[in-house]
Amino acid sequence: MKKNKNKYLSIYERIREDIVSGVYPKNSKLPSKRNISDEYGVSVITTEHAYELLAEEGYILPIEKKGYFVIYSPDSFFDVAGAGFNEENAKNSYVRSKNTGNTALSAGYINKFDDYELSFSQYARMMRRVLSTYGDELTVRSPGFGTEHFRKTLAAYLRRSRRIDVDHNRIIIGSGAEYLYSMIVKVLGRELTYGIENPSYEKIGYVYKSEGVRCRMLNLGNEGIESDALWKSDVNVLHITPYRSYPSGVTASASKKHEYLKWCNEKNAIIIEDDFESEFSPSRRPEETVFYLNHGKNVIYVNTFTKTIGAFIRTAYMVLPENLVPVFNEKMSYCACTVPTPEQYVISELIDSGEFERHINRVRRKRREIIRVNEIVK
Questions:
Q1: What are phi and psi of 28, to 5 degrees?
Q2: Where do the H-state alpha helices sit in the chain?
Q3: Domain ranges in the chain with CATH number 3.40.640.10
């Protein structure tokens, strides 16, 4: 195991790889915590942390007095084909999340709670600091894809918080996710067919239809898009919100995420991963992104600061697969960046100072507490 990595994360990653590769097939029982601890030379508590993360992400199921059993299978996503989406399915998703420990799924349950934004006084204080520190540098027009300063900050943040390790030149800044969706269409072309979750956030469909592309509405089941709908479609570009689809609250299971990637690679398609609000997952560990699982190949990762900082922020970003960078540079190099330079520097300062991540961690702790309280009440 790498010395610079938490031991429980190394154990988690090794066992996850063994599960995905079939060393531990579906329904098999994992070695006991004691055996794993002896094998890796760590405490039982360290192994327990690793197993808890595997359960939270839907790879294994803890059964009291019996042990930990694998529930992930590369073929398990076909089990829910045709299930369809309805209110009962959404409720079942939450029940499943409690049984499997998948707190990403349970995030749909806390949708009714108050939103958490960075206070405006914090943002204003950071703005004053930026004005004082950078002065005339803020008057320089931003390059089309965003300032190098901001994109380098984002690259470092994604590397440490989401395990997305990319060069800053693969990051594009824009004024809101909808603007970036439009940019994607302009680059990929209007002759492609786009697949959208049904139901989904209505603006997603509006943007694609306004750009003149064909759209297919793909029904959601308990775990994500129904397998029959996905594999039988003529879709070339798939737009997904795996963390939590709005308004259904459905979260893609680990098996479903791998199914999306299998579909993407077999069809030579493109996935647009809309990761809105995933930073606030009550899980102790950030959610696995589809971008990370596929090493960035054929996946465009999109996120925004509208939720994590405030609705007054119209700043979003996307991370490109390496093979699409030259295409974007060729077709969109004429664009002017739609996010003012001062705003880019303020967000950079929030991240570099640690204030942004402290805010995220406070919200995540509060949400975990809300879930615990609701479990007690129920």
A1: -75, 155
A2: 7-21, 33-40, 44-56, 87-100, 103-106, 120-134, 148-161, 177-188, 202-210, 227-231, 254-267, 290-293, 325-332, 341-352, 355-377
A3: 120-358
Buried b or exposed e, range 296-307, using 16+ CB within 10 angstroms:
bebbbbbbbbbb
Q: What is the pTM of this model?
A: 0.74
**Which has the closest alpha carbon to 287: 297, 271, 276, 300?**
276
Q: Residue-wise pLDDT tens for the chain (378 aa)? A: 444 357 888 898 889 888 988 888 888 999 999 989 988 899 999 999 889 888 877 788 888 888 999 988 766 443 333 333 333 433 343 344 344 444 333 334 334 444 567 888 888 999 999 999 999 999 999 999 999 999 999 999 999 888 899 999 999 999 999 999 999 999 999 999 999 999 999 999 999 999 999 999 999 999 999 999 999 999 999 999 999 999 999 999 989 999 999 999 999 999 999 998 888 877 666 678 999 999 889 999 999 999 899 888 999 999 999 999 999 999 998 888 999 999 999 999 999 998 898 888 888 877 777 766 666 555
Q: What are the C-alpha distances in Å from 49 to residues 6, 87, 101, 362? A: 11, 33, 13, 21
Q: What's the CA gap between 261 and 291, in Å, rounded?
A: 9
Q: Is the Cβ–Cβ distance between 239 and 195 less than 8 Å?
A: yes
| Closest CA relative to residue 314, chosen from 346, 286, 287, 291 | 346
Residue limits of CATH 1.10.10.10 in the chain: 1-73
Q: What values do phi and psi take at 196, rounded to 5?
A: -130, 140
Task: Name the residue among 368, 377, 373, 378 with its Cα closest to residue 116.
Answer: 368
We find that the CATH architecture of domain 120-358 is 3-Layer(aba) Sandwich (3.40)
Give me the CATH topology for the region 1-73.
Arc Repressor Mutant, subunit A (1.10.10)
Cα separation, 219 vs 82, in Å, equals 9
